[in-house]
Every structure is written in C-alpha cells, then in structure tokens.
Amino acid sequence: MKIALAGAGAFGEKHLDALRLIDGVEVVSVVGRRLEATRAVAARYGIGHATTELSEALAQPGLDAVILATPTQMHASQAIQCMEAGKHVQVEIPLCDNLADGEAVLAKQQQTGLVAMVGHTRRFNPSHQYIHDRIVAGDLNIQQMDVQTYFFRRKNMNAKGEARSWTDHLLWHHAAHTVDLFAYQAGPIVQANAVQGPIHPELGIAMDMSIQLKAESGAICTLSLSFNNDGPLGTFFRYICDNGTWIARYDDLVTGKEEPVDLSAVAVSNNGIELQDREFVAAIREGRDPNASVAQVLPCYRVLHQLERQLEG
Known about the structure:
Structural class: alpha/beta
Helix content: 25-40%
Radius of gyration: 19 Å
Number of strands: 13
Strand order of the largest sheet: 8-9-10-7-11-12-13
C-alpha cells in the first residue's frame, strides 16, 4: 500500500515512525510547508518524493491513501481534495474547526465510498481500549469521567518547541479528544455546557476552558482545559465507574490507588498512533468502515458546534 503524508511537522513524524512498523506499507511522498525542511524529513525516512504541494503528492503513481497532519484550518478541504482524487484519507484531529466543513467531508465520503478516518487517538490508546473492552463485556459502567487537558502554550509553538504557522484551539482540537472519547465510552451526549476564561490579546483564543457533559446513560464528564498551566503537561483521565476507578495517562493506566494495570494483552502495540494507523490500513485492505470514521466522530463536532454557540452567546 502506497501512502503519502502531508504535514512534516512534529505529529507527522509520529505517523512516519508508526508506518515503518506496518507490513506492506510504503510512504512514497511527504508534503511540507518549506521544501528544504520537507526534503530533510524525506531523506531521514528514506522517502523518495518531497513537495510543498498536496496535488503533486496525489499524482504519485499507484498512490492509495493519504494521512493529513497539516494545520487544522486545512483539514477539511484537504480531506475532500484527497477523496476527489480517489484516495483514502486519514485526517488528524480535529476534522474541522467549524461544523459546516465537517458535514462537507462526510458528504464527500458518502458520495465516494472511500475510507475516511479521523485521528481520534484516544479510541486507540491501550489504556482507553482496556476500559472500553470491559464496558462492552458488561463488567462496568462509567459514572463520571474527570479529565484535565493542560499545556503551557502562551506562545504559538508546536510539540517540538518550534513556531507554528497556525493557532491551536482548546475547543475544536483538545476538547474534541475528550468529547468523542466520553461518547465512545459512555454513550451519546445529551447535554453540554461550557465557560471560558479571558481571550489572549495576541493569539486571539481563550487560554482556559471548562466543559460539562452528560450522556444518555446518565454518566457525566467534567473537562478542564488550559494553555496557562505551568506544571505537568498532557491529558489525564479519571474513570469513576460502578465497579472500580482508573486513571489513564496516554498509553498507561493505573487504578485509583495508583496500581499499574498490565496492558500487554490489549493490542499488538502500546503506541496509540501506531494502532490508529494500523486501523486505517486494515480498513482499506478489508473494505470496511474504520473505527473513528468521519461518520462515527461527527457527533463530537456537532457538540463542539453547540458549545461554541454557547460561548459566543
């Protein structure tokens, strides 16, 4: 399977590392903003083609699929561009930063029948898979999720400490992870509320936000997000269930008493990005909808749209 990667930044390289581990996959093109830097990434990973134009990558002979790790504002239009070229596509989270764009991507997927997946990595992290498998097996039900998403990002920098060409967003990007995961674990969301702190004078975004969610099952979720947090960074999930409590930290899981949980039997890897990419490749090969398909995750973006309207109101 021949794949192109668009977005040769910090997260794009995580996908390149993951794709190296999947049998029968070849990355044939990498797309970036600056040609010299993109060529350097291509050389480091042994990729034969580098470009600054997605259209040039889409024209590579035998190309099957594209992974988009580009700026948020480009995700929807580029996903549609890939499908119009007849290519399967996985777009990094978030699918969009407004609901109309997300609905347009879904319409194009339904028109073409191609695999269109969104990088909702939390569905694939072994820590969250462990909880999901136990819910499906009937061992437990969620009563409450308490989630903290904390970064220190008062300047427009990426995960590698480099200047970004675009501005990140607490609601449309970081809240998307938890809103989707809560629905995936607890069921459809029927109530959502949000408040936000002051708008940053230079970045033009809220740097602190609080979100409350309620699922059809009765489970609730409290999500705190901050770009002002100068302390432990990342996202921390507390699952309070009717039969136990767990804390998930990316690919690790402990009980409420900080006892490590063995996740070695959950999946073939402990790397959520690798498992996400394996699902994308498997869905293409098997001609089926992937977990985290555009259709499956769009309800999350409908909730985010509702929350944005509240915040603007």
